[in-house]
Amino acid sequence: MSQRTVIGVLGLGEAGGAFSADLAAAGAQVRGYDPAVPAGPGLVAASSEADAATGADLVLSVNRSAVAVEVMEAGIGALPEGSVWADLNTASPAKKERLAEIAERHGIAFADIAIMAPVPGPRLQVPMLVSGPGAVRAAELLSGFGARVEVLDGPPGLAATRKLLRSVYFKGMAASIVEALEAARAAGFEDLLRENIIADLTAAGESTVERIVSGTYQHAVRRTDEMAAATEMLTDLGVTPSMAAGSRDLHARLSEDS
Q: What pLDDT is recorded for position 108?
């Protein structure tokens, strides 16, 4: 990959900082901007979103969903024709579609990139999915510097959908484990519950998902009462039963639908 390839990175936190450093080390000219984090060694320190985007072949927006539109509107006008704006923020498919519409109005190709695993460790080689009109070009540029990018044949929002569906499962499970351990700590049984969780996760196999799903539907009525009791217990322990109450309500809905 030619050193003349210019990549603007907006957001130099954990992910943006790692990506920008790895891209620069691999030979890209990286123009970095973050109002709260200074550009690291090897980067061209930009003074604004527009400055970072000036002359770029590709812009990586690695901020937060809450500011994704604002950041794009501040910088996209500086991009030259034929470049790509890639949004790596964890945003809804609807927001990715809105970003793509803004990019199209400016004559710029848009890429929806989903980061599919924690960045520390693999850094730029973390698995990523990309969709949208700029997907192929974004993947070509990033892959040339060692990134692992899978192109999805679909519109902006498809990559985000794939990521967020996994997030519902994985982040929901993680939150339930944290809440359960917090309650177990309050009840004096944290070590025991931690051992139970480790044993369950270790024993999981190909049939686990189907067993969980079928059992949830089959026993929805009984489990509604069980999770109502768990919600009450957590409240008595002084633990906010966010996940327990959500589980109670989901089982109640399933029992009504059956």
A: 98
**CA atoms within 13 Å, Cβ hemisphere of 67:** 12
| The pair of three-digit structure tokens given for residue 114, joined into one six-digit string | 């989903």
User: What DSSP element (H or E) covers 99?
Assistant: helix 93-105
Which residues sit opposite 109 in a β-bridge?
A: 84
Q: 3-state class of 31 per DSSP?
A: strand
pLDDT digits (tens, 9 = 90+) for 212-254: 999 999 999 999 999 999 999 999 999 999 999 999 999 999 9
Q: How far is CA 251 from the centre of its chain?
A: 27
**CA–CA separation, 134 and 119 (whole Å):** 23
Give 174-203 as a DSSP string. HHHHHHHHHHHHHHT-HHHHHHHHHHHHHH
Amino acid at 122: P
Distance separating alpha carbons of residues 113 and 78, to the nearest angstrom: 21
User: How far, CA to CA in Å, does 198 sit from each of 110, 188, 191?
Assistant: 42, 18, 11
Backbone Cα Rg of the chain: 22
Does residue 3 register a pLDDT over 80? no
* Residue written as token pair 């985000």: 160
In the structure, what pLDDT confidence band is assigned to residue 258 with cuts at 50, 70 and 90?
confident
